Amino acid sequence: MVDKSLRVVVIGAGMAGILAAIKLLEDGINDVVVYEKADRIGGTWRENTYPGLTCDVPSHHYTYKFERNPHWTRFLPPGNEIQAYFERTCTKYGIDELIRFNCGIETASFVAGRWHLQTSLGETDVADIVVAATGVLHQPNIPAIQGMEDFLGDLFHSARWDHSIDLKGKRIGVIGSGSTGVQIISALAGQVAGVSHFQRTPQWIMPVENGYFSAEERESFRTDPDALDAAMGTEQYLANVEGYTQAITGSKLDTRAQWSAACLQNLEQNVEDPELRELLRPDHEPMCKRLIFSPDYYGAIQRPGTFLVREGIETIEAEGIRTLDGVLHKLDAIVLATGFKADRFMRPMTITGRNGVALESLWRDRPKAYLAVAMPDFPNFFMLNGPNGPVGNFSLIDIAEHQWDYIAQCIARIRSGECREISPTHAALEGFEEERVVAAKTTIWYTGGCTSWYLDDDGIPSSWPWNYQRFVDKMKAPDWNAFECVI
Ligand code: N01
Fold first, then answer.
1. 313 in ligand 1 pocket by Cβ < 6 Å?
2. pLDDT over 70 (residue 197)
3. Is the pLDDT of residue 43 over 90?
4. In angstroms, what is the span from residue 224 Cα to ligand 1's centroid?
5. Which residues lie below 8 Å from residue 420, measured CB to CB, with a gap of 6+?
């Protein structure tokens, strides 16, 4: 058994790219470079810095398994603490030195058995293996609202928060009622002169409490691993994740009913004014869109100075937003909490596989990958959090870790010399896709009467349409019959 030395390029220094780099070093693969288009690590947690930014996964489960964090101050992790955690971890594991900052990958082509890459700085690199860890939600969706350029105040997307602007004493408009819009409204209510929430589609909200860990608790998590384990309750957490995914797929309708009842009760009990309550009542089933976890949104929207606007937007004008009823909502700043283009993944990179096959041709209909990690004709190219992987109200770190375990086994075959080139077969991808689309149409994302960023252009949910345990099982060991191995 040979032990080939391999050069590995990782694209992206967010959560998944850092994970890949740490794991590669751990496996003794030292010729690793991480290309990062920005000047800092962190991916989504670097780009999103809006007020109220919080992840909806319990803090102690939003870490790598090998690097727990006893320092979380809240039950749900605040964005700045997540960013600090990744920065600390990156440094601790020696990843900083491997990263080329301000250096994006523009093209990657598989020629004569190796990947040839061109960077945004005009350099080239040649690698045996490429790991794309480019994230899911990174390209802001900027809506085409007429008159946007006429607005005289400040206007920016939620993932491009302009911290140079002092919002004190200002009237703010927030467009969008996903997790982001809801968190921003909750944070700004009562802190500015006025905040108007422009909601095209109200969403269901789970009233998940977000308490604080006391200094004593944090100290005990730091010094006593058993205390941390007890606080984590990993078995229960994983059972909840499994139950959640079964509720989505429809195999556990009682769990779905419980989640729905909790959302409904939250609305009925916590919004006093019946008129406002009706305006906030979604017209689709709970869990159809990604559930919003918020302990304080309904409180915030009922505060003096906070306004719900359900009327559609007609134009943006110099002084504010005009709605279809002719009312001009005068504003000093507008935040577009309008989400992301969820089908981008590695785009706009130009990626060309074996025999000149373009990624854009494989992805002509929609982004696809065998089990979300690899593609035919793109040998020795692997994705973390790639298309059709599990996405939902659970930790994407955990998902990436399982995917890495799978990818590492593919890399081991290349390293041992068993395969020079490894990629799934066309038949494997086609079979997977066929099964996936059939399953996707049974999920509540499809049947629940809503649209969301989970749906592709054909209205098919693009996330993993089965339960969590099936994903974990699939990631344990590759089925080598699904792979083509060039010796
Ligand atoms: O984006 P979204 P998000 N006019 O796509 C509205 C993660 N995240 O940034 O529903 C008016 O959910 C659109 O309206 P509609 C998480 O995975 C996680 O909030 O299409 N409105 C919708 O209300 C999340 O799911 C956390 O009718 C327009 C909103 O914009 C994902 O990011 C925190 C419009 C977009 O909602 C995306 O969340 C924050 C228009 N022209 C984010 N165009 C955690 O806690 C769009 N909208 C982990």
1. yes
2. yes
3. yes
4. 39
5. 113, 414, 486, 487
Q: Which of 179, 244, 297 to mutate to test the pocket of ligand 1 (most atoms within 8 A of CB)?
A: 179
Contacts of 319 (CB under 8 A, 6+ apart): 152, 328, 330, 331
Q: Is residue 1 part of a domain?
A: no
Atom of ligand 1 nearest to the CA of 338: 30
Region of residue 233 (phi > 0: left; psi between -120 and 50: alpha; otherwise: beta) = left
CA 468 and chain centroid, separation: 16
Specify whether the CB–CB gap between 72 and 10 falls below 8 A: no
Whose CA is closest to atom 25 on ligand 1? 290
The reply to whether 290 and 399 lie within a common domain is: no
* Residue 245 Rama label (left phi>0; alpha psi -120 to 50; beta): alpha
- Is there a single domain that holds both residue 330 and residue 349? no
pLDDT band at 257 (very low <50, low <70, confident <90, very high): very high
What's this model's pTM, rounded to 2 decimal places? 0.96
Strand partners, 154: 333
Q: In this model, does residue 1 exceed pLDDT 60?
A: no
CB of 58 closer than 6 angstroms to any ligand 1 atom: no
Q: Which one-letter DSSP state was computed for residue 312? A: P
Output the CA 95–ligand 1 centroid distance in Å.
32
437 and 308, same structural domain?
no
- Domain housing 397: 7-139+341-486
Q: Which of 202, 188, 394, 208 is nearest to 294 (CA)?
A: 208
Is the Cβ atom of 175 under 6 angstroms away from ligand 1?
yes
